[in-house]
Each structure stands twice: as C-alpha cells, then as structure tokens.
Write a structure and sequence with these properties.
By secondary structure, the chain is an alpha/beta fold. It is built from 16 helices and 13 strands. The N and C termini lie close together (about 10 Å).
Length: about 375
Amino acid sequence: MKIGYDSQIFCAQTYGGVSRYFCEIASRLAQTPGLEVSIAAPLHINAYLQHLPPGIVTGFRGPRADRFESVYPRLFLRGVGLVLGDLVLRTQFPDIVHETYYLAYPLGPRRARRVLTIYDMIHERFPSDFPLADKTTRHKAVAAKRADHVICISESTRRDAIEILGLAPEKTSVIHLGFDLMKGGEDGLMNEKSVTNEPFLLYVGNRGGYKNFLGLLEAYASSLQLRAGFKLVCFGGGALSADEQERITRLGLDSGQVIQLGGSDQLLSQLYARANAFVYPSLYEGFGIPPLEAMSHDCPVICGITSSIPEVVGDGGEYFDPADVDSMREAIERVVSSESHRKVLIEKGRARLACFSWDHCAKETLGVYRRLV
C-alpha cells in the first residue's frame, strides 16, 4: 500500500501540533512491512521534517515564512509549495492521500482514496474569534465532503463535525492523539526569581476568545486566598495586550501578580514542575495537550468540564464550569488549599497518561487506511 501526505501543513507551519502529528504517524508507519510512506513537500518551511528517517520526505526546507515582513512573499512561497507538492504527489501514485489540512481543491491523483483529519470545530463554534476573511470553515466543509473517511481527534469533535457538517457517522472515526513526555532542562527559569521564590498558578497558550483567559483573571482576582498566596504565570501567547493590562488594573491586581513568560520547552517544563497547579479555563478544545503536559510533571490539573477536555483528562483533573467565575475560583481554591487533594490528582494524572501514545495513534490510523483500500 502506498500512503501519501500532501504538502499543505508543511508549507504553513514551521512548528505546530498538526505538522508534528503527521510526522509522528508517518515515521511509525514507514517502519511497517508492505507500506510505502511519503510526505510530498518539495518546498516547505517545516522544522520537523528534517528529523524524519531518510526516504519519507520528498523535498527540502526553503526560507522560513516568518522571516518575511510582507504577507506577499509568504503567500507566494506557500503557493509554490502547494503546486509543486501536487505535482510530486501525482507522480507517486499513492493508494491513500491523507490531506494534512483544509483546502478547497484536492492535491494529488484524483483516483486515490482520501482521508481527512478534523482537529476541532472552533471556527464553527466561535466564528466571532476569527477574521471575516478566514476561509477555514468553508474549506473544511469542502474537504470533509470529498473525503472517503474523516478522522476526528476526539469524540467531542466527531459529534460537532457530524452535527455541523452533516457527515454520515459511518464515514467518521475517533483516533486520539499521542503524547510524549516533555524534557526538562537547567536553563531558563533560574533567573526568574519572582516566579521561583513564590507559589504560582500556571496558564499556558494563547489567551484570546474561547481560551477564556479573562475568565481566569476574574476568578483569580475575586479570591483573597489566591491573590494573597499565588502569582498567576502565563506562558506563551505573546506579551500581555493593552486590553489585558487594563483588565488587570480594573480588577485591582498589581502588575507583579500576573506574569507573562515565553521561551523554550525547557522553560515550560520547569514551570509545569514548579507550579502549584495548572489551570485550563478554555470554553472549547478539539483535544487539549497542555493538561497532559502538566500531568507528566506531577502538576495538578484544574480544568473546564466542556467539549473534549473531560474526554482527555478523565478522572485526572478537578473540574469547573468555565462560564462560571465562582465555579472556577472554588475549584482552584479546593486544590491549592489541600495537599492531600493535590496528591490524589497527581497520582490520577500519572495513570491517565498511559491512555495516549503515538504508537496507538499510528496503528489506529493504519486501520482506517486498510479499510479503504
């Protein structure tokens, strides 16, 4: 069986969860006897591809798109990468084409059976969080319609995809993502005296819209216990915006109580290991890797009971209603005020990690391919 992966995501992401997902499964499937696996990305910007075993990737890494100040060179580079990727995929004659993102037209030979992975339905559930010119919703619907099978990374995403896109249930399946333990390091955090010398709560990722960071700010500010005893550290997502800083001031918080940091996985790993708890206030997730990262560092997880989050976290987290500030505040207070409760969550989190592996993800994905050919 010949399996081909198109160039879409590798022309768009230097780093990122979606391109990492395809590299993880492709590298494992390439070791399976009787399979010929190829990623057709003749001109790409992705950093992961250079670490794959020889023979999987057709192509080379071009200039990184984020080095271009103007949007036009980035679009030109992506367009050339897609055109060349289409031509290469056609010459390889794969039996299966697994589309790596959402495009209005198919890449590669039309005779191939097509698989699409849907990662979430956030654009459809929260359209106001995205620009009017964003075509993700339209392209996703077109790609899902032409696919012979649609993989969803959680049951929550599958239900939403069936409801919103009108997919036949038998055309879909759920395959959870894998998870690798993050590696710690000695660099990065040691100079952050204001963080390491005081207890803190940790938030990770982008902070806008459905991520509900402002809800977490309100929950934190409404608790005398949390304000007096803990900093709130935000990793990633860029510097605090003017609106966020204004909200922090309006809530009566000092500038030193909410700290934004960015940096390497080594720094993030240390933050997980030293945080008193990790808080995940998101209103919606297609899967949700950060809670698993926290669990791998024995950091208690406190999270919203919505979308795919309970499906991933299981009994390894303390839940709250993310739309209810009081519910969030009370959940955080319950965890940080009880060392015995923290230990229970840590133990359950360790056990939960065993449910997710890239080997299992690759095996289940191969099962989908074989049913189509």
